[in-house]
Amino acid sequence: MMKMLPFFQSGPFGIRSGSEGCINANRPFENTSASEAEQVPASPEPSADEIWSREEKMREMPGAACRASRASSITSNESCISAGDSPEKGNKGIKGMLKSAFKIVKKTKPPSVKQVMDLLGEQKLCDAIQHLFVLEKSLSSKSEEGLNASQKDIESVYEVLKHKVFSTLKDSVLLAKTNPDLLQQAVEALKEQEKEDQNYMSENPPDQNMQFRPRKWKELWMVTVKESVEARMKDTSRTPRTENLSAVGQNLLHMGKTMREDLTVVAKYINKLYPPEFNVFSIYAELYHNYFASQAKKNAESHLEDKDIYLLLSWVHNFYPNDMRKDHDLAVELDKVKLGSLLPSSLSKELENKYLDSEEVTVKNSLSRCLDKEIQRWKEDKEPEKLNGHFQSELLGIFVIQSIYSSQQRAENISKAVGEELSRRLLKELPAFLRSYRDAFEDFREKSKKHRYYKPILIANINNCWNFREYTEKYMAEKDDSKADILSTLTDIENSGFDVLLQQLFAQLKPMFKRFTENKWDSSSEIMNEIIKTTSKHISDLKTLKDPFYHAIVEKIHTRLVKEYIVRLLKRKVSLKTAAQQQTLAQHISKNAADLEAFCTSNGSQATWLNSALPKLAEIIRLQDLGAIKIEVATLATTYPDIRKRHLEAFLHIKANLSRSELKSILGYLADSTASTQPKAPLFSNINVS
């Protein structure tokens, strides 16, 4: 008996081949009207639910699926075997079962239009479309007049069904989570209709097609999906309003958010409802992309505000290609589709140039305003603030660097290429700004000497240079021409400030150094102590400089002290004939050199290269052997390669016991030994010999 069950299901109202999806989407078709079988007393044969249960079990067995022929490929809304039409008790075996089956065929009537409408009212879309297929098949046995009348009824019902199916499909993204069963029914109805079209086309040559077949629901489905996509992309009310975002920016945000969320639903839920040949995700993705791209192009070709140009470029180069792929399932599907860019490359490049030009002008104007404000602060009768004991006017440096850096970062958020191009442009603006800054500083330095806080303002601006130095060293390549230009300008500002800060000190020291030669180095220790005391007072005022600049200015002081001492030795004011006199002078010089080195080192000088200059000169004065003198001269020339013959000749005037030939021999040795390269830090080259 069980082996024959598929046969009964292949009768006039049995399950059509290929309609399993619809059956799985719903429970077995229920009786929607009383049939003739209901007038017959119940028999002990199995009920419809029991037969359905058996069928489900058998379907899982290999080869047990229904194999109905194309001639009988229609579906009934009734159970496979009705209780009222069960085989008579007296007819046992296969022969009796066959007789009973043919009785069912004769007795069962096609479903009515009312039955189909009732199913539609109950949202049983799969059942309804199967009943309509039955009604369509039943028309082939009617007269021409009956055919026209019945076809109109069927088409009317089809319109109702089509409206329900496609209104459901239009809301696929919403229903995929809220009412997946209804969505699945609509998809199954679409699939069944497409199969019916294909079956009809395979059995009927094109010239014999009736006007109602093929119904082309798949084409209508594609139109419906497009309408759905466009409607959702246009409905900006679904995206909460973001404060300070323009209408263009809000629309871009809405479209991007909608596309990402909707395609995630398509990838996770909708895609699996359809067979592969529908290319569901690809169609949805391309429709969303095309709409987004059309709106982006429309925006790009219109007059946009600067902030909207930035937002649009950010979507084109960053948000769209990157944020869309944050969900793994969506990223996998998108990689298969290859949607491309939101804008054509030519239009994107045009927009990038507009952004870069605008940003460059914006930053330039911002820096100019910042410098104007800084100049106004210099004019105020107010001492600069201190930070960690150092005078600061750092708002300028901080603001300028932050303006450039933040602009670079914003551009890099669009794309690496845009960021690099803006960096190149802005790094050309920085040297121009610093030159303007230097000129303004020089103007203040020359015209504001009576300002109450003249020196603190100078120190604050010198300190300001450190921020620019750090930024330049960190973010600019060595090969960049702008880097050398920037560092040179900063050095000009620093040295200009140092000159003013040291001017008074050096003026006070000059007459003190003259006393060395005037007294012929008598009381040289007292003179050196006075020099150190005076210098110490000035150095204490310089500690409001930042450490790098403090060390730099102390090195300048150290250099100046050694240089001024050497100048006194080259003045030809002292000439000593005896070795004892020379020995005494050498001792004075050595003592002065040691005191000077100790003082400068204790105050932070790192100019250790200066420490051997005076001791070597003292040693030349002390030595009496010509060969030893030559060796010491050679050592001096190696350490300080900028020493020249004129310097040595003036210095050797102290050694009055040297013959002319000995002097010539020593000077000649210096000429042969002196390197032609300039020293890293000059000493003798800054000393003029009269």
Distance between the termini: 135 Å
- Helices and strands, in order, run as HHHHHHHHHHHHHHHEEHHHHHHHHHHH
Radius of gyration: 50 Å
* Average pLDDT figure: 81
How many DSSP H or I helices?
26
Can you give the helix content as a percent range? 55-70%
3D shape: rod-shaped
Largest sheet: 2 strands, antiparallel
- The poorly predicted ranges are 1-21, 23-92, 101-107, 143-149
Count of beta strands? 2
Estimated structural class: mainly alpha
How is the largest sheet built, in terms of strand order? 1-2
Beta-strand portion reads under 5%
InterPro entries: EXOC3/Sec6, EXOC3/Sec6_C
Family: Belongs to the SEC6 family.
Protein name: TNF alpha induced protein 2
Pfam family, one: Sec6
Notable features of this structure?
single chain; 690 residues; mainly alpha; two-stranded antiparallel ribbon; rod-shaped; disordered N terminus; TNF alpha induced protein 2; EXOC3/Sec6
Explain what the structure shows:
The protein is mainly alpha-helical and 690 residues long. It is 68% helix and 1% strand. It is built from 26 helices and two strands. The chain has helices spanning 5-8, 20-25, 48-59, 93-107, 113-121, 125-138, 144-170, 172-178, 180-203, 217-234, 247-270, 280-300, 306-323, 328-337, 345-379, 394-414, 416-447, 454-475, 481-518, 524-541, 547-569, 579-602, 613-622, 626-639, 645-651, 660-673; strands at 386-387, 390-391. It has a two-stranded antiparallel sheet with strand order 1-2. The longest helix has 38 residues, at 481-518. The model is unreliable at 1-21, 23-92, 101-107 and 143-149 (pLDDT under 50). Belongs to the SEC6 family. It comes from Zosterops lateralis melanops. InterPro entries: EXOC3/Sec6, EXOC3/Sec6_C.
